């Protein structure tokens, strides 16, 4: 039985944003999804931690710039004390410090506020399933940063047991394509893409999508 089949209850989500004009409409929109229940809306990191402690919570949709406790510090504390709770960042900021700070603190997803409702709900579901989703702008920024800091990286060989298709998928991740983009490029389903990603992550010891981008680059695939 798959995890999707086994799950009968909706995903419990906390929406965190210091602006009520953003927080409340976002919570209302997410509540329209049948498999998502917004269990709390928080104006700062302290309120997020309190909501998670009251639980259960599956995913926190996290703004970064909040008073009292910002999103990066809140993500760090959740990773340390509630690792079962996934964090998806939703912010207007896509600078290097914000992206690397959030991902380094343990966020599984990073979206800008240009993301639509479908993008946000897809990222929430993916994070709850242990997958990473990065906004295309964020992926491009990570690639640019990695290339600027390591313009000629030492080649790091990939495991010999990766299949040709798994190498193709890794190369496309390295180019910044989403799962949907990879599926369209290879003429396969998104479910098949997810299977290839899970397999290559396990074989190559890849932690998340940002790590996959780095591995694709050091293997000379991107």
Automatic annotation (TrEMBL):
Residues 12-128 form the Response regulatory domain. Residues 155-220 form the HTH luxR-type domain. This is Response regulator transcription factor. InterPro entries: CheY-like_superfamily, NreC/VraR/RcsB-like_REC, Sig_transdc_resp-reg_receiver, Tscrpt_reg_LuxR_C, WalR-like. Pfam families: GerE, Response_reg. The keyword Repressor does not apply. Gene3D superfamilies: 3.40.50.2300. SUPFAM superfamilies: CheY-like (SSF52172). PROSITE patterns: HTH_LUXR_1, HTH_LUXR_2, RESPONSE_REGULATORY. The keyword Transcription regulation applies. PANTHER family: TRANSCRIPTIONAL REGULATORY PROTEIN NARL-RELATED, TWO-COMPONENT RESPONSE REGULATOR. Keywords: DNA-binding, Phosphoprotein, Transcription, Transcription regulation. The modification 4-aspartylphosphate is found at residue 63.
């Amino acid at each position: 039985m798959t995890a999707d089949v086994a799950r009968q209850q909706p995903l419990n989500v906390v929406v965190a944003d210091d602006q009520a004009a953003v927080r409340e409409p976002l919570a209302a929109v997410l509540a329209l999804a049948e498999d998502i229940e917004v269990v709390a809306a928080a104006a700062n990191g302290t309120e997020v931690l309190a909501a998670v402690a009251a639980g259960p919570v599956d995913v926190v949709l996290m703004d970064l710039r909040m008073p009292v406790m910002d999103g990066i510090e809140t993500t760090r504390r959740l990773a340390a004390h509630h690792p079962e709770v996934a964090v998806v960042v939703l912010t207007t900021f896509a600078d290097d410090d914000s992206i690397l700070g959030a991902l380094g603190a343990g966020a599984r997803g990073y979206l800008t506020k240009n993301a639509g409702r479908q993008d946000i709900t897809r990222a929430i579901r993916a994070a709850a399933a242990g997958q990473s989703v990065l906004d295309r702008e964020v992926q491009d920024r990570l690639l640019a940063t990695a290339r600027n800091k390591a313009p000629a990286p030492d080649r790091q060989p990939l495991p010999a047991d990766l299949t040709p298709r798994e190498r193709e998928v890794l190369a496309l991740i390295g180019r910044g394509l989403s799962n949907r983009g990879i599926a369209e490029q290879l003429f396969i389903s998104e479910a098949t893409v997810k299977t290839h990603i899970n397999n290559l992550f396990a074989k190559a010891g890849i932690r998340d999508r940002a790590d996959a981008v780095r591995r694709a680059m050091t293997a000379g695939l991107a």
